Amino acid sequence: MLWIGLSAFGGGLLSALMGFLDSKELFDLRKFGQSAIASLIAGFGFALAYNLLGEPNTRDYIVAALAGAGFDGVSNRILGALRRG
């Protein structure tokens, strides 16, 4: 359960880091912190889900990392839309 959660969390953090490097902006701790919180939520959710489904395999770890990255991207889009009104 812990490793699946960490995979989703790591995928979200990797997505946030890649977004920062692609933006060519100065590092903004607030934006990165929002991504870290979204990644933590994704990791927690995946850990709970896989706890109910059984023993994960290698494919499940990869899916969790990709889902964590996707959750980070979607949450950033939603927060951006809410900020713009």
3D architecture notes:
The structure is a single chain. This protein is mainly α and 85 residues long. The protein has one domain (2-84). Helices cover 87% and strands 0% of the residues. It is built from 3 helices and no strands.
Which oligomeric form is depicted? single chain
- When the domains are counted, the total is 1
Give Rg in angstroms. 13 Å
- Secondary structure category: mainly alpha
Tell me how many strands there are. Answer: 0
Largest sheet: none
Please state roughly what percent of the residues sit in beta strands, choosing from under 5%, 5-15%, 15-25%, 25-35%, 35-45% or over 45%.
under 5%
Which word captures the global form?
Answer: elongated
Order of helices and strands: HHH
Mean pLDDT: 85
**End-to-end span in angstroms?**
38 Å
Q: Output the number of helix runs.
A: 3
The helix content, as a percent range, equals over 70%
Poorly predicted ranges (pLDDT <50, ≥5 residues)?
A: none
